[in-house]
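Weekly modeling sync, notes
Attendees: S.R. (lead), two postdocs, one rotation student

Agenda item 3: backlog of single-chain predictions. S.R. asked that every request posted to the team notebook include the full sequence so nobody has to chase files. The rotation student volunteered to paste the first one in as an example of the format we agreed on. Action items at the bottom.

Example entry:
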Amino acid sequence: MQRSFYDYLFREGFRAGWEKMNGSRALKYARYRYVIGFEGDNYARELRQQQVISAVREKLKKRDPNDVLGLINTVRALSANTDTNLSTGNLIWLYRNFSTVPPEQIRNVSLKPFMEKFTLESMSEPGEAVRTRTGNLDELRRMAGPIFSDMREIRTPDQIDVKGTSTIPAEGPTAPSPTSTKQMVP
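Predicted structure, as returned to the notebook:
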C-alpha cells in the first residue's frame, strides 16, 4: 500500500508498504469505505479494488489452466456469495485469452478527474453525490471513445498506482498530469 489508512467503523487499518494478504484481508482492503482522508474517497476504493483484481490475476497466471478450472468449479460449488452468468466455457475462454496479456497493456481508469462531489440539499436525499465537473457529459464521452485504444493514464495525482500500469504521460484536455508515485499492490 502506498498510504496507510484506518477504517473507523470496523476499527481496522492498513499500514503503508507491502503486505501479503489472505482472501479475507484483501476483501477488507478493497471494501473499506469509512476512512478519513484520500483513502476514504470512493475513487480510492475503486483503485484498491483494481489492485486486488490485478494481484489475483498475477497469481492465476502462475497456475496451471487445469488448476484454474478446478478453482472456478470449487468457488461455484462452495460460495453462496459468488454468482455469474458466465458459463465454465466462457471463463476458460477468458482465462486463455487474457491471462497472458502483459500488465503494461492493462489500463486502469478512474472517473475522478472528470467528476466533482457535492452535498445533496434535500432532506429526502441527504449525503454526498457526484456530477460531471462541466455539467455535461461531453468530457466523459471524449474520454470513453478511445478507452481501449489510447493507453494514456487517466487518474489524479492523489490516487494509488496499480502494479504494472502504464507510465505514459497523459496529455490533452481530459487527462490529468502524470504522477510520480510508487507502484504498490496488496
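Discussion: group reviewed the output briefly. The helical segments are 23-31, 42-61, 65-78, 88-98, 138-144.
Action items: rotation student to repeat for the remaining queue; S.R. to check formatting next week.
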